[in-house]
Every structure is written in structure tokens, then in C-alpha cells.
């Protein structure tokens, strides 16, 4: 039975980068015999334009039934004025919540070919390989009460940071499991100095550690200091585990350690299904980039690497995932760069589709 892959290109540069991912999927199907049953559907503004909401119920059902979902990006200025309940971003949040994708893995890896490129010094980021595990289905993104209310003569906007022990414990376990397969270190980030939810977070992570993962080295850090340390000396970290909002911000910071937001993939994983595989959605960390949409400037690597994470975490194709990463590093080493990876004095950038073609050609050379 072929693996079922649901592709949701979304908005802005989402469909542009996804076109390049399709080339890579086709290559693996033709050359490595990986059989995928690929179906495409709408999410975000593209779904709103057709259905009047950012995720149709039928699409939600398809996502629940898929072996993996691959998503481009959602949102854009065209939809900024829509009612909050139907904004493109709500479609993505619904997918994450209803599929219960509580562990969001955001690896920040500095490819050798880009060690010179980051705005940070080469010795700070050369060889960097860290994993941010962001809690994705709770916290201030989903806590109640929430809304904009009238209080006397003025409006008040309310969101609530809420975490249960169980929600903290399960994402902590994901982080410890990942650490065991890497360098065995976890740093947990919260603000236990000012937030009760942070105190509980710290306690529960420590309890799970002591009871189940005493072999893993665990440290705790306030999330603001964590942001500073990520830029000062990121190689001190192996796995970072943190909440939904801090994880959102810290992973964008980490993106710049790799050279560009266009380089950072992610995997959002839930509990294992009956077949032992986790429910899973793969997407680049970046958004729909309205400023460059339609210009052929988008870097497709974050989305292609997200498919690489699907090969690894959903399909157990570790060799194939490693081959894809080697091909990307080699293409970058050849000097092929999209505009976001150019420095003053560099030669002409390649377009989105030229980058996709170069990666496919390199796969052929290396395989
Ligand atoms: P963004 O990530 O879309 O863009 C930030 C900057 O990075 C822009 O200058 C953009 O051109 C650049 N950039 C991003 N991806 C790139 C790529 N692949 N190649 C080259 N350059 C790239 O963030 P934003 O501008 O804050 O948000 C734009 C829209 O995207 C908003 O509607 C936001 O809600 C949405 N968004 C969606 C997701 C998602 O779908 N997962 C993530 C973040 C933002
Ligand atoms: C991300 C994005 C999303 C988030 C938005 C688009 C809902 O910024 O995936 O990082 O805030 O989680
Ligand atoms: Mn984000």
C-alpha cells in the first residue's frame, strides 16, 4: 500500500516552494521506489476563497487519514482584514489542534556551505545542530478565557497561558527521547521567575526527567536568557524544550543561525497511531512571505527539508533523508543560492525553480 501524503500548498510562496517539493517527491518515487499516493487540497486563504473558511471539514478528515501532511504556508495581506475566526492562520491552528500535534520539532542546522553566511561569526555557528521542541497545541495560543472585551469605557484584549501537567509531561518526553538519540542534553526554557505556568513547567519537566530519563543531562533557563544564549553561543545546546509562544519566537531566532528563515523545516508530531507511526504534519517555519510572493525569489529548501523530516519521522527512510540533506549541502557548496542567501558581491541568485532543479540533479549525482 502506498503511503498517503496530503499536500496543502496554502498561500503566497507556499505553492511556489511546494512545486519544488513535488519534484523531489517524484525523484524519490522514480529512483528509490518510494510509493506515495499524493493528494492536494486547500488551506488558509486559498481555502477561504473557495469555502469561506480556512480549512474545510473534508480537508480536516483527509488530514486525519493521511500518513503525513505537508503544508506550505498560510496568510497574507489580502486576508488581514478578515474576521479572526476565518483568518488563514486559523486553518493551520485547527490542523495542529485537532490532530493533537503537540510536539513541534524545529531543527536549526548550519550547513557547512553556509557557515560563512550567517550574520554571526563562523566559529559561533559552524557545525551547529540543535533541536527546538516547541509545545504546539496548548499554552497562550489556545487558553481560555480569550477575546476582546469591553471593560467600562475601554476594550481589553485577553489571552490565557494555561498548561496542564499532562501537556507538559508529554512534550518533555518527546524532548528527552530525541536527546537520547543525539547528544543527550535537554535545556528547558520558561519564565518560572514570573509565571505560575512556568513554575509548573519547570517542576514537571524535572519530575519526568528524574523518574524516566535520569541519564539525560537536564538544565533549566529563563526563556529571555535563552534567547540571548542562542545568539551568544548556540552550540551549548542540544535539545531545547519550551512552550508554544516562546518556541515560536526562539525558533525564528534560531533560523538566522542557519543563514535564513528559508532554511528551517519543522515536523509537528502527535501520538502514535495504530500502525505505530505518529500523526504528523510537516511545514517550513517561515510564512507566506508576501513581500516576495510571485517573484521566483523564495528559497524552497525549508519546505524540501520538511519533506526530508517526513522521510525520517513518518516513513523511517533515514538513508533517503540523509541523502536529501547531503544533496542540499552540495548544491549550496556549488555556490547556487536563492536571493535570501546572497551577500554583497555575490553573483546572480538562482530562482526558486532553479534551486529545486539543482537539488534534483544533485540527488541523481549522489545516489
Ligand atoms: P514570513 O516568514 O512570511 O516572512 C518573513 C521574512 O522572511 C520576509 O522578508 C520574507 O520574504 C522572508 N522569507 C520567509 N520565507 C522565505 C523563503 N522561503 N525564502 C526567502 N525569504 C523568505 O513572516 P511574516 O512576513 O511575518 O508573515 C507573513 C504571513 O505569513 C502572515 O500572514 C503570517 O501570519 C504568515 N505566517 C505563516 C506561517 C505558516 O504558515 N506556518 C508561519 C509564519 C507566518
Ligand atoms: C509558525 C507561525 C504560526 C504560529 C502562525 C502562522 C499561526 O508563526 O508556525 O511559526 O504562530 O505558530
Ligand atoms: Mn512563527
TrEMBL record:
Keyword set, alphabetical order: Amino-acid biosynthesis, Branched-chain amino acid biosynthesis, Cytoplasm, Leucine biosynthesis, Magnesium, Manganese, Metal-binding, NAD, Oxidoreductase
Site (Important for catalysis): 141, 191
GO molecular function terms attached to this record: 3-isopropylmalate dehydrogenase activity; magnesium ion binding; NAD binding
GO CC aspect terms: cytosol
First-listed, main subcellular location of the protein, grouped into a coarse class: cytoplasm
Database matches in InterPro entries: IsoCit/isopropylmalate_DH_CS, IsoPropMal-DH-like_dom, Isopropylmalate_DH
Function statement: Catalyzes the oxidation of 3-carboxy-2-hydroxy-4-methylpentanoate (3-isopropylmalate) to 3-carboxy-4-methyl-2-oxopentanoate. The product decarboxylates to 4-methyl-2 oxopentanoate.
Family according to the record: Belongs to the isocitrate and isopropylmalate dehydrogenases family. LeuB type 1 subfamily.
Name of the protein in its database record: 3-isopropylmalate dehydrogenase
Amino acid at each position: 500500500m502506498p503511503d498517503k501524503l496530503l499536500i496543502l500548498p496554502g498561500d503566497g510562496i507556499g505553492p511556489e516552494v511546494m512545486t519544488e517539493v513535488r519534484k523531489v517527491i517524484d525523484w524519490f518515487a522514480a529512483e528509490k521506489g518510494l510509493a506515495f499516493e499524493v493528494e492536494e487540497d486547500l488551506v488558509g486563504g486559498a481555502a477561504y476563497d473557495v469555502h469561506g473558511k480556512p480549512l474545510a471539514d473534508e480537508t480536516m478528515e483527509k488530514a486525519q487519514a493521511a500518513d503525513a501532511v505537508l503544508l506550505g504556508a498560510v496568510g497574507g495581506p489580502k486576508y488581514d482584514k478578515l474576521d479572526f475566526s476565518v483568518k488563514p492562520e486559523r486553518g493551520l491552528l485547527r490542523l495542529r489542534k485537532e490532530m493533537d500535534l503537540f510536539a513541534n520539532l524545529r531543527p536549526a542546522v548550519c550547513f557547512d556551505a553556509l557557515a560563512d553566511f550567517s550574520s554571526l561569526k563562523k566559529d559561533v555557528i559552524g557545525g551547529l545542530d540543535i533541536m527546538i521542541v516547541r509545545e504546539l497545541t496548548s499554552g497562550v495560543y489556545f487558553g481560555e478565557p480569550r477575546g476582546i472585551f469591553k471593560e467600562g469605557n475601554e476594550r481589553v484584549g485577553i489571552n490565557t497561558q494555561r498548561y496542564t501537567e499532562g501537556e507538559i509531561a508529554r512534550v518533555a518526553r518527546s524532548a528527552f527521547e530525541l536527546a537520547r538519540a543525539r547528544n543527550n542534553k535537554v535545556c528547558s526554557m520558561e519564565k518560572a521567575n514570573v509565571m505560575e505556568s512556568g513554575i509548573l513547567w519547570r517542576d514537571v519537566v524535572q519530575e519526568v526527567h528524574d523518574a524516566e530519563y535520569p541519564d539525560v543531562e537536564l538544565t533549566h533557563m529563563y526563556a529571555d536568557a535563552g534567547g540571548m544564549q542562542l545568539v551568544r553561543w548556540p552550540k551549548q545546546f542540544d535539545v531545547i524544550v519550551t512552550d508554544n509562544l516562546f518556541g515560536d519566537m526562539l525558533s525564528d531566532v534560531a533560523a538566522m543561525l542557519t543563514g535564513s528563515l528559508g532554511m528551517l523545516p519543522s515536523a509537528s508530531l502527535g501520538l502514535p497511531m495504530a500502525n505505530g507511526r505518529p500523526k504528523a504534519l510537516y511545514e517550513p517555519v517561515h510564512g507566506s512571505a508576501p513581500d516576495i510572493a510571485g517573484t521566483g525569489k523564495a528559497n524552497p529548501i525549508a519546505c524540501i527539508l520538511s519533506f526530508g523530516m517526513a522521510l525520517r519521522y513518518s516513513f523511517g527512510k533515514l538513508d533517503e533523508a540523509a541523502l536529501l540533506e547531503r544533496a542540499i549541502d552540495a548544491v549550496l557548496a556549488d555556490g547556487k543560492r536563492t536571493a535570501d542567501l546572497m551577500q554583497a558581491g555575490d553573483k546572480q541568485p538562482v530562482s526558486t525553480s532553479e534551486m529545486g532543479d539543482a537539488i534534483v540533479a544533485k540527488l541523481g549525482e549522489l545516489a
